[in-house]
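Sample intake sheet
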Amino acid sequence: MGTLWIVATPIGHVDDISLRAIEVLKTVDGILAEDTRHSGRLMARLGITTQLKACDQHKESQVAVWLERHLAQGKSWAYISDAGTPGISDPGGRLAEHVTEAGHIVRVVPGPSAVTAAIMGAGLVAQPFLFVGFLPRKQGKIERLLTQYASLDVTIIFYEAANRLEKTLTLCESAFLGRRVVVGRELTKMHETFHRGRIGEPLKPAFVDKGEVVVMIEGGVELHVQSDVQPMKRILSDANLTKKDKIKRLKEQHQFSRNEAYDLVEWWRSEETP
């Protein structure tokens, strides 16, 4: 019986390709690729001459029917997305689903992923974390999802287009004010950068026009969904209140734990201090 190999490819630095991935891609009967032009350049650089066949997210179901016949004949094929790990905000999952339901073998060659790369370099303890892929484009849907995520004590990770990042982080303020945020750009590439700050403060160096970024918002500083941000800001900015008073009011009026209220007050003080 043939095998479908799901193979991870580099997200930036070509040397991140694994020896096992190269071996599989050289020895299978063919490679299904999200974009044959993009993957063709990678294959040429690696000296891989295996035939390529296009299979983007719109063709997965159609190609799966064709692929099942070839696997039934004992042939083996690999699937690669444009970059990273297929099935993680990339095509490949539906293809694997069709093949397994038909009784064929699916094997994986793990490797680079923007999610895991971001976790490794963010400087946050990300366990547990929730990866949500790309957020919806409509503001109302984004706000509803963020409100749901804010009630979870987990690190939230999502992808975003760089030119929408500033607007998206502004929308995050109503649900995640004060939480630490890390934005990863150009991961594994020459200009790889991690921009760190807190929701509610500007991250201007992270705002660029092109590409995609990975956004991580820490868990643990739970801002409950029924809380209104403006009343919290009034407490934090009230010069007539002592630190102890602010902590007490945040606990009573917004259901923070003492540690959460303390962290938020300290962060606010650090932002006000020149």
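Comment: The longest strand covers residues 155-161. The chain has a mean pLDDT of 89.
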